[in-house]
Automatic annotation (TrEMBL):
Localization terms from the record: Cell inner membrane
Annotated YutG/PgpA domain residues: 20-158
Record has Lipid metabolism as a keyword: yes
Enzyme superclass (EC): hydrolase
MF terms in GO: metal ion binding; phosphatidylglycerophosphatase activity
Pfam families: PgpA (PF04608)
Listed PANTHER family: PHOSPHATIDYLGLYCEROPHOSPHATASE A
Pathway(s) per entry: Phospholipid metabolism; phosphatidylglycerol biosynthesis; phosphatidylglycerol from CDP-diacylglycerol: step 2/2
GO cellular component: plasma membrane
Cofactor: Mg(2+)
Protein name per Swiss-Prot or TrEMBL: Phosphatidylglycerophosphatase A
EC numbers on record: 3.1.3.27
Length: 165
């Protein structure tokens, strides 16, 4: 692929929209940029959650989702590719939501949340795959990861209930 055919060549990490959409650059790590973006989001999200507390972190996550609809659409437009793998802001927001459901930020819970999120984000069970294919917008880029986070939260909540019983 020549330089002018590579959509990443149309981006600049000096552009704050691109920088954020590419997960502070984590989406440029290969292979598996979504996994690297999720890992970066996990670390940043855990730090933010521990500093802000649950309520402020959830507000921040909601704001990041709204902002992400713009960031992801603008970056996809600039690349000329819908939902390019390097766009990982959606992974950040998805893992943020998963973090908010964890009972504690211990290594075991963090690993479980990360693995569940990646499992559902990669496999995209129904209806995640449907929305991923049908919605061709920044919202479409964001919503499949939000749904993967919701799917991830279900077993976390069940496990929390079983442990506390």
């Amino acid at each position: 692929m020549t330089d002018h055919q590579n959509p990443l060549r149309r981006l600049s990490l000096r552009n704050p929209v691109h920088f954020l959409a590419l997960g502070l650059g984590s989406g440029l790590i290969s292979p598996a940029p979504g996994t690297w973006g999720s890992l970066a989001g996990l670390v940043i999200g855990a730090l933010l959650l521990s500093c802000l507390g649950q309520n402020l972190f959830l507000i921040l996550t909601a704001l990041c989702f709204v902002l992400g609809c713009y960031l992801c659409q603008k970056t996809a437009d600039d690349m000329g590719v819908h939902d390019h793998g390097a766009i990982v802001w959606d992974e950040f927001v998805g893992i943020f939501l998963v973090l908010s459901a964890l009972p504690e930020l211990s290594p075991l819970w963090l690993a479980l949340g990360f693995i569940l999120f990646r499992l559902f984000d990669i496999t995209k069970p129904y209806p995640i795959r449907y929305f991923d294919r049908k919605l061709r917008s920044g919202f479409g880029i964001m919503i499949d990861d939000l749904l993967a986070a919701c799917f991830s939260i279900v077993p976390i909540v069940i496990l929390r209930l079983l442990i506390s019983a």
